[in-house]
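Hi team, as promised in this morning's meeting, here are the two structures we talked about. I've kept the exact order from the run log so nobody has to guess. The first one is mostly here for context; it's the second one we should focus on when we meet again. Sequence first, then the predicted structure tokens.
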Amino acid sequence: MVDFSTPAPTPEEMERDREIGRVLFAGEFNFVFGAQKLGQLPDPILPEIAFAGRSNVGKSSLINALTGRRALARASSEPGRTKQLNFFELADRLTLVDMPGYGFAKAAKAVKEDWQGMMFSYLRGRPTLRRVVLLLDSRVELKASDEEIMKMLDRAAVTFQVVLTKCDVPKPPALAAKLREVGEIVRAHAAAFPDVLATSSTTGTGIEELRAELARLANPV
């Protein structure tokens, strides 16, 4: 099990980290490569943060909100359309990886299994991968595919952090209940980071906090 027993940051440290995150994510951000096969992966140089989530969870919208770009990561109206690992380089200090969505209903079983196999091979073998940001839709119940991905991350021994998306939609009591529910679930997974973040790409809720969290994993200036 990964040891996450670190002291909680003070308000001053949190404000400092938010500013560090703001500066980092305001830096130059470029698409590097889209890999459809493991043999096409770019060389592992910078620390990597991979974003995973069920199709239509709002992954592209969240990446765009983090970077302040409108269409850097393209959202698709067709669930499961993204079929590759997309690599984006941030200020020569961090790489964000947009992973294919999972759990899309229309895909053939063989395609789902092939994509999951590629994801697991990438997660298990990538030396520069620092964390997976696992996105869950705050409006809906957890699906079997979400639990499968958490178990896969446990097996790959890759630290992952759950981030709830679209948190502007549920009423505050419903959102608080969802945070408690997901918090209990992640505590049962050996590789899970204990803090669950609530975000909204529409209102900006939680975006500063997530930037600060990811900035701690970037190469120093």
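And here is the second protein, the one for discussion:
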Amino acid sequence: MSTVGAGIPEPPRDEPNSAWLSDGELDWVRGRIPLLYVEAVPVRVDGLGVVTQVGVLLRANAAGEITRTLVSGRVMYGETIRDALFRHLEKDLGPMAFPQLPPSPVPFQVAEYFPIPGLSAYVDDRQHAVSLAFVVPVTGTFEPRQDALELTWVTPAEASSPAFHAELEGGRGTLLRAALASVGVLG
């Protein structure tokens, strides 16, 4: 094993330039440094660009509970934020979602997730993570993939309700409300 940077061991790779980590490597990294994620709130907009519907994923979490969540995932080494957003939108919503990403995406919020409840509104039992959150218009058809069970479309008013907020895991209800506020449709 070689050493890279400040003494961090570089694990052997089956393929050169692989940006994926094995489960063991990921656990090792998660225990030592915050990881960078992107999160996306898919929306449908009218002809004037006003948000008319908000997409939220239904998914089974690690504990086997059915919860609502947002499109999210890690940014790989050497990957642009724009490419990471596109990859995770396509992975979670299907290849025909047609996300409308701007040439230079700017997050509406930076969310910091901690494994210890109470340090912020956002909790992730696995790790300390920093997430760049975006509102992304989508125009296509949707076939949720990976561990997503379905994509539910709701109005901004429904997505703003306390009951809906409570159905989202890890503080993502707070993030969803911030997304709605950032586009002027918080009910």
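Starting points for discussion:
Residues 81-93 form the longest helix (13 residues).
Residues 1-6 have pLDDT under 50 and may be disordered.
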